[in-house]
Design goal:
The longest helix has 23 residues, at about 235-259. The chain starts with a strand and ends with a helix. The radius of gyration is 18 Å and the shape is globular. The chain folds into 2 domains: about 5-170, Uridine Diphospho-n-acetylenolpyruvylglucosamine Reductase, domain 3; about 175-259, CO dehydrogenase flavoprotein, C-terminal domain (Enolase-like, domain 1). The chain has helices at about 10-20, 35-40, 75-80, 80-85, 90-95, 100-105, 110-115, 120-125, 235-259; strands at about 5, 25, 45-50, 60, 65-70, 130-135, 140-145, 150, 155, 160-170, 175-180, 190-200, 200-210, 215. The protein has a 5-stranded antiparallel β-sheet with strand order 4-5-10-6-7. Strand 12 and strand 13 form a beta hairpin. The protein is built from 9 helices and 14 strands. With about 260 residues, the chain is of the alpha+beta class.
């Protein structure tokens, strides 16, 4: 790795100012970032640690939403009684996300900002209607998690911006399921990921892994219009068939949760 500056700001204002520079990157858990730096894929001139910004809060908001700070570890979220009690689909999803060692280190904000379509929470949080709070040099803004993604490893975050919190609306009468198909071990990158949320007769379906970002389907039949590319996890035709099967399975699992 090439030499880089490491900064540890204590306020959001300071952090966004440090990030508003060419070659600056936020540093949360570093599970993906450090691997990419070691491989030479990324060569940041400055890493800005988010450790001292107080972004590790996990609580229920005034409207019954689950508020997850960007620096909450995936393991903390997985073990949280708040998530397990109100949003059990998040708990179930995290149990097979990579492995315990990674979940102990990885933070929610970095997991979302990495924008790898093979990650599990972006499609699920998109289907649940989660909203991200983003801080930047120009102030604060909010956007649906679904709108964070522009393509493979590409987000809509601007220079100097970072995710500070994610709010997941209360489930109410909704029921949800997330299923993935891995071609090797259960904690491997998925070939296909499918999130389904049922609200009465309304279905929300978001697929990932086989696409370059989480993609919302208008209906189960809309699978046929998806643009899919083959890779080491399978051919395009194979992945499209997997999506057909896993959409049906996820809908059935969400219905079972309702019963």
């Amino acid at each position: 790795m090439q030499p880089f500056e490491f900064a540890e700001p204590s306020t959001l204002r300071e952090a966004t100012a440090l990030l508003d520079a060419e070659g600056a990157r936020p540093f949360s858990g570093g599970t993906a970032l450090m691997l990419m730096m070691k491989a030479g894929v990324l060569r940041p001139a400055r890493l800005v640690s988010l450790r001292r910004l107080g972004l590790d809060q996990l609580e229920i908001g005034s409207a019954g939403e689950l508020r997850i700070g960007a620096m909450v570890s995936l393991r903390t979220l997985e073990k949280s009684p708040l998530a397990r009690g109100g949003w059990p689909v998040i708990t179930r999803t995290l149990r097979t996300l990579s492995n315990v060692r990674v979940r102990n280190v990885a933070r929610l904000g970095g997991h979302l900002a990495h924008a790898d379509p093979h990650t599990d929470l972006p499609p699920l949080l998109s289907a649940l209607g989660a909203v991200a709070t983003i801080a930047g040099p120009g102030g604060e803004r909010r956007t649906p998690v679904e709108s964070l993604y522009a393509g493979y490893l590409e987000t809509t975050l601007q220079r100097g911006e970072l995710i500070t919190r994610v709010d997941v609306p209360a489930m109410g009468g909704r029921r949800a399921a997330y299923l993935k198909c891995t071609t090797r071990s259960v904690d491997d990158w998925p070939a296909v990921g499918v999130a389904v949320v049922l609200d009465g007769e309304q279905q929300t379906i978001v697929v990932s892994a086989a696409t370059d970002r989480p993609v919302r389907l208008a209906s189960a039949a809309a699978v046929e219009q998806l643009e899919i590319e083959g890779d080491l996890h399978g051919s395009a035709a194979y992945k499209k068939q997997l999506i057909r099967v896993y959409v049906r399975r996820a809908i059935h699992e969400a219905r079972d949760a309702a019963r």
